Amino acid sequence: MDQGEGLNTLGKKLAATRRRLTLLALGRAWWPACVFIALFLALALAGVFDRLSSFLAAAILPVLMLTGVGLVWLSWRRYRKPAETDVVRALEGQSELRPVSSLTDRPADPSAGPAHLWQAHRARLLSEISNLRLPGFSAEWGALDPYRLRYLVPLAVVALAVIAGPAGPGRVARAISPDLGALAGADRMIVEAWVTPPDYTGRAPIFLQAGMKDVRVPIGSEVTLRTQAPSSPKLILRGDKRKTMRFKQTPEGAYEARARIDGDTRLTVNWWGERARWSFVTLPDEAPLIMFDALPEPGPRDQVQFKWKAGDDYGVAAVELAIRLREPHPAAPDAEDRVPVPMPGAAGAKEMSATASLDLTRHRWAGLPVDLQLVARDGAGQEGGSESVPFILPEKLFLDPLAKAAQEARVTVLREPRPYADLTRNQQALTHEAINTAATGRLDAAPEGVRQAALMLDAVTYRGEMFINDLGAFMGLRMALGTLQSAGTKREADAIEPLLWSIALKLEYGSVADARARLEAARAALERALRDGASEAEIRRLMEAFRDAANEYLAAKMAEAMAGGLDGAGQQEDGRAQAGGDSLGGQDFEDMLNALQDLTETGAAEQARQLLSDITNLLENLEFQRGQGQGDGLPGAQAEGEEGDLPPEEQAMTDAMRRLSEILREQRQLNDDTLAQQRGEQSGRMGQQPGESGNMEGQGTGESGEPGQDGGGARPGEGEPGNGRGGTLAERQAELGRLVDELARRGTNSGEEGAGVPGAGIDTETLRAILEAQRRAERALEGGNEGRAVMDQERATQMLSELSREMAKQIDQMRASRLGEQGQNSNDPLGRALTGAGNDGQGVEIPSESERQRAKDILDELRRRYGEAEDEEEREYLRRLLERF
Fold it and tell me: What is the DSSP string of 387-416?
């Protein structure tokens, strides 16, 4: 071997020996730290830390970290890099010649004589070096690691990693970073969260559970989070923008946060680390669609009629008719008015269609060519429109010259779009540059239309006391003129609109116009309440208002007819044809109002709205005539000869049924008051006199107020509770018992007031049983035993309900038999075929009397069960059912 090759071999063996010595030195210094780390990884991969409680895992981590850091620091201090002499000694220790260290020797006599001997010596050393083997240090390793942990621990870590699979990294991460908040109790923190979609969507709240991802919610939803914590957590929202907010403390001591979700959002709750996380995906909300199903056209009474249909993904909230002038004024080119369009049901239906009839004769642009456009709006405020349709708004025709002038002045003011000019300064005012407060000079600042209207009113009222017969109209016109002269803004000038409109109607149509306006207002209010699901008390109040408005309208129509002197057979026949002929008697109209009240009380909103519309149409199309009797055709008050409209048996049964219904209604109210007193509550009827509920008038019939003077039929207030006798529960019960006793005596006493006509079907035995139950309840109330009284009252109510239902069935059978005898031309008060239950022609059936009585019985049974229920959950369920009525 030449010298160069030998030295190269020596260098390689020295490097390899140095590496092995270094590894041995590292093992001696670092084996405690390495074994500790390997054992930690093995335990983490095995899931040991996941099985520990959050508190224990968090508490162990600092100890493990300190131990690990300490071992690393000690290992670093113990490590010594192998010296070069140690490397040489370890390599040449196999040979006695010490070839590596001898190779560095130099001859003492470098003369040429012994040079060949020295070369031979170096060759022998190089040859010896080539025979040297790398040291294995097995003895050292054996002494250092007798159990071969350097092999077993890594092998165990690899095996556990394979077994853990994809869960391995997560286990190690959780072991390295446990929930340190557990040390402060954060691991016991529970976050309750729910998402409330907007009301208009009709969707139920979504309760969030841990681990839910990509929760789909409508845009605009509100997320509510509530938790118990020692301090305020932090809410982080990451969407288009990052938003951070703190929870707010509630009066109960909890912490609550609310946030609106307007886009895809990732939500986290942090308190000593992340406590909850959810992600939301928002559902888009499309704009509603609407269109004309039939183009607008003039209808009866100058109304605008059209058909429409609309739809929205979450429901249509409102429909309006947008009106724009086809040739707008240059000062207001974008002027637009919107008129609400009644919807067929409650707002929120996804699809709807209806026929609309709008009275736009009062609109400022009546009589002008306009463009009509339907606009639908959803709950989020988004709007969708139909195509524009050209149309000429109908206007009311005024033939009276003064009424026509009032209307002309009115629309002149309303159609003026320009504002007032700045008022002039009062140079004589004490305050510098004070506004002129003199009313006489304000017309100079008014726009042209207001000035023109003022001139018109001044002209038509000039010396009006000489030629205007209606002093009220004259004073009203002068008041309108004074309003225009003193107005300082366009809004103040527009205030004359209702005054001039009422004057024009009165001059043209008389007092009937005001009565019709009140009737329409009452109808619209009641229909809106039925559609929107108003409270029972509100619907009852509006029902009474509609009844009063209907009676006022009928009185006004009758006064107008009598003032016109309608008489004679021809006029009578013509009037009957217009009013529906013999099909509308006074009792028929009262029955219709009673049926409407029954429908409102039992929650039949659609049928009530249909019957309400039919009654209103009937009243508005009604014409009156002078009749043969004193009733003179007035619906709602029976004429002398009208008692023959119904057969005696049916008339008697109808009267008895009406009496019984009033008694049943009052008995139900008394039951509720007794239950309230038993529970220690304050009833709305406590202390009232019987019959003060509004459903049972306490007034007599006719001028004398004595029963039995109007044809033998029971009229509202005749023989009913409510005559002011007694105020305590016992006295009210005694009064109801007296009325039942009177009804039973009439049933057995043939011929009295027509109530005992043979075959009338009054079950006197049941009445006696009812009377006995009522008397027992009266005695119990006098003795202060409300519990016993409630049982007897419920028994009496049940028998009253059963008797009412049976009587209603008999009345329906009598009516069906009578109509069958009269043939196919029999009509109800609305001119429709009578079959026991009405129908509006559009799929909404008006329940018959027996069906309405059945609904009352169901409502009574719900009230009874609500009063007897002891379980709070059952009471809440029954309460919700009662609210629907």
Answer: --EEEE-------SHHHHHHHHHHHHHHT-
- Mean pLDDT over 824-831 rounds to 44
Q: Which of the 8 DSSP states describes residue 713?
A: P
Cβ-contact 717, 691 below 8 angstroms = no
Residue with the larger pLDDT of the pair 558 and 308: 308
Of 91-105, 320-334, 677-691, where does the model show the most confidence?
320-334
- CA-wise closest residue to 308 among 292, 321, 322: 292
Report the distance separating Cα 100 and Cα 95, nearest Å.
Answer: 10
Instruction: Compute the residue count for the chain.
Output: 885
Are both 189-283 and 291-392 of the same fold?
yes
8 Å CB contact between 477 and 457? yes
Per-residue model confidence (pLDDT) at position 105: 58
* CATH number at 189-283: 2.60.40
Helix ranges, 679-719 (H): none
Q: What does the pLDDT look like over 261-319, one tens digit per residue?
A: 999 999 999 988 888 999 999 998 899 999 999 999 998 888 999 999 999 998 899 99
Lowest mean pLDDT among 199-208, 509-518, 573-582, 600-609: 573-582
The first and second tokens of residue 485, run together, are 């002269």
Measured CA distances, 770 to 469, 722, 741, 765 (Å): 63, 20, 9, 9
Alpha-carbon gap, residue 660 to 743, rounded angstroms:
8
**What is the spatial distance between Cα 802 and Cα 794, in angstroms, rounded to a whole number?**
12
CA distance 175 to 180: 11
- Range with top average pLDDT, 12-21, 754-763, 780-789: 780-789
Domain boundaries, the chain: 3-176, 189-283, 291-392, 401-509, 647-700+711-826
The C-alpha angle 746, 752, 758, rounded to 5 degrees, equals 75
Q: What angle do CA 523, 342, 285 make, to 5 degrees?
A: 145
Based on C-alpha coordinates, what's the Rg of the chain? 49
Would you state the torsion angle of the CA atoms of residues 182, 186, 187, 192, taken in this order, to the nearest 10 degrees? -170
The tokens 């969260």 sit on which residue?
193
* 832 residue type, one letter: R
The residues, any chain, with a CB within 8 Å of residue 222's CB and separated by 6 or more, are 195, 196, 258, 259, 260, 261
pLDDT, tens only, 521-557: 888 888 888 777 777 778 888 888 888 888 878 877 7
Determine contact, residues 408/395, Cβ cutoff 8 Å. no
Strands 221-227 and 248-249: unpaired
Q: Taking a C-beta distance cutoff of 8 angstroms, is the pair 709, 764 a contact? A: no
Q: Which residue has the tokens 């006493």?
A: 749
Does an H or E element contain 813, and which? helix 786-822
Token code pair at residue 109: 């006599």
Q: What is the 3-state secondary structure (H, E, C) of 50-109?
A: HHCCHHHHHHHHHHHHHHHHHHHHHHHHHCCCCCHHHHHHHHHCCCCCCHHHHCCCCCCC
Q: Starting at the edge strand that comes first in sequence, how are the strands of the sheet with 304-311 ordered?
A: 289-298, 304-311, 351-358
Please list the alpha-helical segments (H only) found in 321-437. 401-414
Task: Please write the tens of the pLDDT for every residue from 830-862.
Answer: 444 444 333 433 444 555 555 556 666 676 777
Closest to 276 (Cα-Cα) out of 194, 221, 216, 196: 194
List, for residues 186-199, the tens digit of each pLDDT value.
Answer: 778 889 999 999 98
Taking residue 538's Cβ as centre, other Cβ atoms within 10 Å add up to: 13
Return d(Cα 267, Cα 276) in angstroms, integer.
Answer: 8
Q: Which CATH superfamily is domain 291-392 in?
A: Immunoglobulins (2.60.40.10)
Please list the residues that pair with 258 across neighbouring strands.
Answer: 224
What is the average per-residue pLDDT within 244-273? Answer: 92
Strand runs (DSSP E) across 475-543, as ranges? none
pLDDT tens profile 150-163:
788 888 899 999 99
